[in-house]
Design goal:
Helix content is 26%, strand content 12%. With 65 residues, it is α+β, with helices and mostly antiparallel strands. It has one domain. Strands 1-2 form a two-stranded antiparallel ribbon. A hairpin with a 6-residue loop joins β1 and β2. The longest helix has 10 residues, at 9-18. The radius of gyration is 23 Å and the shape is rod-shaped.
């Protein structure tokens, strides 16, 4: 098993480029809070997730149009 000091940085950069990674920061996992929140539809009672300020699910909004 190679040690960290045995890894050629140019070869590693070439591999990351082929895999679509731009830099070392692409490897970090970003823990972002989702903007989605759960809402209970006032018409049918279905529980759904949305990022908009609405009280009707997609199906009920579609029926009303």
């Amino acid at each position: 098993m190679p040690k960290d000091n045995d890894v050629d940085p140019e070869f590693e950069a070439m591999l990351k480029g082929k895999m679509g990674w731009k830099c070392d920061c692409s490897l970090e996992i970003v823990d972002k809070k989702s903007s989605l929140h759960e809402v209970l539809c006032k018409s049918c009672g279905k529980l759904f997730k949305t990022n908009s300020d609405t009280s009707l699910c997609f199906d009920c909004r579609k029926k009303r149009k």
